[in-house]
């Protein structure tokens, strides 16, 4: 159960990213860290069929003032992809909490994109001491908000999938047809296994089926920011209003952006996210 340094990676011209692999009880977890370690911690959790790389364009805008931490959830990116482990969101959250403990982070503002918002919520349920505030980006509040689509389903029965199948699968993650999906993000899907892809996507649905996120969040009493691309093609953006059930929740709709605003227009996400994180930040010394 050692932490091994995976070496630096230059991210968007910023300071080198520290990559490491954490050996947890049920699999190795890949982690990236940027920014000064004694700055307030900001934890970014990716969605299904994604990885830490989905945050790459945003990190340089956040790491000047925060210790930015990204984790490849089990089954994704450079983390392990076992066939005999649970991919349920509470189990993913437990691993994230263990990883944070391993690097000595006691408090963090936690940000989740898409189903990563469910993992962030599960982490806050398990570790209210660790999570000081939550920001959810295009996270559907309930299954009622889901927009059925053949391309957004788990219809990648052929493995590995062809480039065209991958592009069709990923197309609804963006606001417009013809968006040039970064090839490295398609590679992240290809690097998964069919088991981890289907299991992790089903896990997100299961978590919402058990209880809608606004109901879970009301019980937590954590400060909440919800950002939603208004042209989301996977979740009805009007459903973002459901989060107003959480006392003092701040909900922002962004016109012209789809399910992945962190990739489509990072600066428009960075502004409200930094303002929220700064207000609710807890320094290392605290």
Task: Write a concise synopsis of the structure shown.
Helix content is 31%, strand content 21%.
Short key terms for the protein model shown above:
single chain; 286 residues; alpha/beta; Rossmann fold; 9 helices; 21% strand
Mean pLDDT, nearest integer? Answer: 91
- Envelope shape: globular
Which structural category fits the helices and strands?
Answer: alpha/beta
CATH top level label:
Alpha Beta
Helix content: 25-40%
CATH topology: Rossmann fold
Characterize the biggest β-sheet: 9 strands, mixed
Q: List the domain count as a whole number.
A: 1
Strand content: 15-25%
Alpha carbon gyration radius: 17 Å
Topology:
Blueprint: E1 3-10, E2 16-24, E3 27-34, E4 41-45, H1 59-62, E5 67-71, H2 89-102, E6 108-113, H3 116-126, E7 131-137, H4 163-170, H5 183-190, H6 194-210, H7 213-220, E8 224-229, E9 250-254, H8 261-264, H9 266-280
Parallel strand pairs: 4-5, 4-6, 6-7, 7-8, 8-9
Antiparallel strand pairs: 1-2, 2-3, 3-5
Structure report:
- This protein has 286 residues and is α/β, with parallel strands linked by helices.
- It has a single domain, classed as Alpha/Beta hydrolase fold, catalytic domain (Rossmann fold).
- The chain is built from 9 helices and 9 strands.
- The protein has a 9-stranded mixed beta sheet with strand order 1-2-3-5-4-6-7-8-9, with helices on both faces.
- Strand 4, helix 1 and strand 5 form a beta-alpha-beta unit.
- The two termini are 28 Å apart.
- The relative contact order is 0.16.
